[in-house]
Amino acid sequence: MLDVVHTGLTAQRLDAAAICKDAHDPRCGAVAMFQGTVRDHSSGATVAALEYTAHPSAARILRSIAEGLTLRQGVHRVEAWHRTGLLDVGDVVMVVAVAAEHRSQAFAAAEALVDEVKARLPVWKKQIMADGSHRWSGLESA
């Protein structure tokens, strides 16, 4: 049987193309991929960098979220990776790739995975602003 779910939290750079390739499954006609990146602004202020910190349970929770999506009809493979540590503007924060029999299934599952990660994953984001100040977000996931 194929290992159908690959997930992880890592301080290493994410290779979106490789992750998307790893999601390929011969039973599937579609792979939907989401790549989240660090943007240069938030709430009207300039962002210089982001720092992500994960709770020790985060890897288990990410895997659980991804495994839940394989119960959806037509979904056969799920890849979900999230960075931790200090990231610069333009760096890849998260990559999700879902292989499904049909594109609508792949798109819906990828969107659901990203939404669940945003809602449930205990990862906290420190926004480092260009003026040297910082803001925290994601603390509601604790």
From TrEMBL:
Can you tell which superkingdom this protein's organism belongs to? Bacteria
UniProt-listed GO biological process terms? Mo-molybdopterin cofactor biosynthetic process
CDD domains attached to this UniProt entry: MoaE
Which N-terminal stretch is annotated as signal sequence? none
Mind telling me which InterPro entries this protein's record contains?
MoaE_sf (IPR036563), Mopterin_biosynth_MoaE (IPR003448)
The coiled-coil regions, if any, are: none
Q: What is this protein called?
A: Molybdenum cofactor biosynthesis protein MoaE
* Species assigned in the record: Peptidiphaga gingivicola
| Phylogenetic classification of the source organism | Bacteria, Bacillati, Actinomycetota, Actinomycetes, Actinomycetales
